Each structure stands twice: as structure tokens, then as C-alpha cells.
């Protein structure tokens, strides 16, 4: 019989590289759901609504079709 603490140790190899940005986003969603006492699906909907409301400024200052120096 082998004791659990005397088992052979082995290094854990990651199955796949985790994208830290994705992990951070998922963690933030979980925190928001906990703070606002809502479901994770509601957090996703809230984020999508905020992004739809947000004006990215693309229509305010359109880029010129041609750039000319000295005019």
C-alpha cells in the first residue's frame, strides 16, 4: 500500500495555452453577475447594449478619400 503523500510527483502540463484576455473577460462577467445579482446571460446582454449605444466616432470625423501634402 502506498501512502497518498508518498506518490510519485509529476509536473502538470497545460492542455492548451489559455488566452488571458478571454479569461479576464469571463472573470469580469462573473464579477458583474455577482455584484448586480443577475445571470451571466444578462451580463452579456448588458455589455452588448452598451456597445450598441457607444458611438465609436466613425461618423463624426470621416477619413478623407485622398491624402495630399501641402494643401
Topology diagram in text:
Elements (H helix, E strand, L loop, with lengths): L19 H17 L3 H14 L18
Helix pairs in contact: 1-2
Q: What are the main properties of this structure?
A:
single chain, 71 residues, mainly alpha, 2 helices, elongated
How would you sum up this structure, described in words?
This protein has 71 residues and is mainly alpha-helical. The chain has a domain at 20-54. It is built from two helices and no strands. The chain has helices at residues 20-36, 40-53. Helix 1 crosses helix 2 (40-53). It is elongated, with a radius of gyration of 25 Å. The N and C termini lie far apart (87 Å). The model has no long low-confidence stretch (mean pLDDT 76).
Structural class: mainly alpha
What is the number of beta strands?
0
Series of secondary-structure elements, N-terminal to C-terminal: HH
Distance between the termini: 87 Å
Quick structural overview:
This protein is mainly α.
Amino acid at each position: 500500500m502506498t501512502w497518498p503523500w508518498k506518490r510519485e510527483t509529476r509536473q502538470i502540463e497545460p492542455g492548451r495555452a489559455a488566452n488571458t484576455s478571454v479569461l479576464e473577460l469571463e472573470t469580469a462577467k462573473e464579477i458583474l453577475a455577482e455584484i448586480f445579482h443577475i445571470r451571466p446571460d444578462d451580463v452579456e446582454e448588458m455589455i452588448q447594449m452598451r456597445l450598441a449605444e457607444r458611438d465609436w466616432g466613425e461618423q463624426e470625423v470621416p477619413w478623407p478619400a485622398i491624402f495630399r501634402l501641402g494643401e
